[in-house]
Design a protein that fits this description.
The complex is a heterodimer of chains A (382) and B (205). Chain A is an alpha+beta fold and 382 residues long. Chain A contains 12 helices and 12 strands. The termini of chain A are far apart. Chain B has a domain at 56-90 and 107-180. The chains are: A alpha+beta (382), B alpha+beta (205). Chains A and B meet through helix 7, strand 10 and helix 12 of A and helix 2, helix 7 and helix 9 of B.
Chain lengths: 382, 205
């Protein structure tokens, strides 16, 4: 019974009337430390219990578990009473209440208070795209501190902006790729992708020679000695379109095109509607059906806010051309890992760059060019 | 007659506004890249630190100047003359001595086209020699390869063949031919993919 009533801490006045006295901390229920006694002891929660509830909400462990169902079934096949409906709607309120609760509490430790303060500020921060440099730095600092408090480990997180005179582009040599998939492995490790669902941004398609690109007949999950006789290999990932259809459909502007051409996602602003996934003609986007998990010692601690920082359940993610690396002058992990040299990355605006040489001297083409999406990912042959 | 100036203004407005259907004002990406790179200034990003411990030398081939890894210090038994102090014929006759280079198999073109002396100079073991007998330094062995593999050489110089070292920014550093291909057996063997997605397999059943 007491377990069920945890969420009830937030009394919105819809059930029975609570104690009349309102408190300086903005709540009229629960214990903020300034009331000496409370009429209904059952509704009280200790700081630890409340903290645990906040944690639970934040980490998304209480959200819908029907991952096998798709579309409307997810909504209609769930038994939803008023109680669960409320619980789902009140994540933000819970964080807020938690912050107030712990900050007013006399018993909660400094760390708990700091955690609650960070959660509060993170929950109600603005869209990253609209932030000033200082605000970006502040949110990155908070996330680093939050990780430190929760996991007792230090990470490095960057909020580096796009540089002027940089436009990233990518070229893929289909006559060189042998299907070894070193790129896929390197990508998963670099970008902290969920190990349980084996999410991968890159797909390598094994296609029959002489039949052109037939994606429906291609195999993107082969396991035999490669290269296989009579086949060629080509990789797809996010193409960072210059006219990205995924960006236009986002109802909350949680995804956008940066000045250096990278199409990025603010994981904290994404509501997980998956419109972008439907809009992408290249299957470039991935959705976190479950909470992404990476063993602590495998976490890549060199992170970027828009790149490989740890994601949450229910948000979109995709290739960012390894923004944490590329903005620092490094090649993306897939380019570095490719043993065949099939992957070429560089600055499209630099007339002396290798990517420009490829575009100007090789026969290049892009996928579904007629859609006008202007992908910055070209294919070519020797 | 009074309509004319109005019509004229209307036409001008239409002309000025009709092409601005996109924010950027370019018709396509190609045009945009061309236009925006006209006033290109180095963004000041360097890849130098990512080259790491690899010792490099700068080469200039045609209009391309870039770094390649230094080779001679990486060779296990350079300088060759430390053993090759006598002519080959004499070394080959000394049967009592341990055989050298027994592990090298030549699988590069056919025996009619190539043998050891196509690249190595029996007269001067410390250097390679071109088809015309001109001395080539071990550090510039790519010149040897370029004699036959000219299209690959062109692609390599431009950056379409081979592998970049470090990062996309300047200075440009690239692997040389011998950093990936064994010159005695340049064909790269087939192998197994490094991963298999069991989850994907399950979902698709």
């Amino acid at each position: 019974m007491a377990e069920k009533k945890k969420w009830f801490q937030l009394d919105l006045g819809l059930s029975k009337a609570q104690g009349s006295g309102s408190c300086g901390c903005g709540k009229d229920s629960g214990d903020c430390g300034s009331h000496s006694d409370h009429p209904d002891k059952e509704y009280r929660l200790t700081a630890e219990e409340f903290d645990a509830a906040v944690e639970k909400e934040l980490m998304g462990e209480t959200a819908v578990s029907q991952t096998q169902k798709d579309g409307f079934q997810q909504v209609f096949d769930v038994k939803m009473d008023r109680r669960t409906a409320f619980r789902k709607l009140t994540a933000s309120l819970l964080v807020g209440a938690g912050a107030v609760h712990t900050s007013c509490s006399l018993t909660a430790g400094n760390e708990t208070k700091e955690k609650a303060q960070i959660d509060w500020e993170e929950q109600f921060k603005g869209n990253y795209k609209l932030m000033t440099k200082e605000e970006k730095q502040a949110t990155v600092d908070r996330l680093v501190r939050s990780y430190q408090l929760r996991k007792k480990k230090n990470i490095k997180m960057s909020s580096a902006d796009a540089s002027k005179d940089v436009l990233f582009g990518y070229a893929f040599n289909i006559s060189k790729c042998q299907g070894y998939m070193n790129c896929v492995s390197a990508c998963v490790e670099e970008n902290n992708q969920d190990r349980n669902s084996q999410m991968q941004y890159i797909r390598i398609h094994e296609m029959k020679d002489g039949e052109g690109f037939k994606f429906n007949e291609a195999d993107d999950n082969y396991y035999h000695e490669v290269p296989a006789e009579g086949h060629f290999y080509m990789g797809t990932q996010c193409f960072h379109c210059d006219n990205p259809p995924c960006v236009n459909v986002c109802p909350v502007e949680a995804t956008w095109r940066e000045e250096d051409g990278l199409v990025v996602i603010d994981y904290d602003w994404c509501i997980g509607c998956r419109y972008c996934m439907a809009a992408c003609p290249y299957d470039g986007r991935r959705f976190n059906w479950s909470k992404p998990e990476v063993p602590e010692d495998e976490v890549n601690k060199n992170q970027h806010y828009l790149g490989n920082r740890m994601r949450k359940k229910g948000v979109m993610e995709k290739c960012t051309f390894c923004v944490q690396r590329s903005r620092a002058g490094k090649d993306p992990a897939c380019v570095e890992a490719c043993p065949t040299g099939a992957r070429i990355f560089g600055n499209l605006l630099d007339p002396d760059s290798t990517i420009r040489w490829v575009l100007e001297n090789k026969q290049v083409f892009r996928l579904k060019e007629d859609l006008g999406t202007e992908p910055k990912f070209w294919y070519f042959m020797d | 007659m009074k309509i004319k100036p109005k019509l004229f203004i209307l036409v001008i407005i239409c002309l000025l506004s009709s092409c601005k259907h996109k924010e950027s004002g370019y018709h396509n990406l190609k045009e945009k890249i061309e236009e925006e790179s006209k006033h290109y200034q180095d963004p000041g990003i360097s890849s130098e630190v990512y080259i790491g411990d690899i010792e490099t030398i700068e080469i200039t081939e045609g209009e391309h100047t870039f770094l390649i890894p230094e080779r001679k210090s990486q060779l296990k038994s350079y300088a060759c003359t430390e053993c090759h102090s006598k002519p080959l014929s004499e070394l080959q006759q000394a049967r009592d001595q341990q055989q050298a280079h027994w592990e090298i198999k030549i699988k590069h073109a056919n025996s009619q086209t190539m043998n050891c002396a196509t690249c190595h100079n029996p007269g001067d073991m410390n250097h390679l020699n071109s088809l015309a007998g001109i001395e080539i330094d071990f550090n510039q062995s790519y010149r040897l390869c370029a004699q036959c593999h000219s299209s690959q050489f062109e692609d390599w110089k431009g950056g379409a063949h081979g592998k970049n070292i470090g990062g996309w920014a300047n200075p440009r550093a690239a692997m040389s031919c011998v950093n990936c291909h064994n010159p005695h057996e340049p064909q790269i063997a087939s192998k197994w993919p490094v991963r298999f997605n069991t989850q994907k397999e399950m979902e698709r059943k």
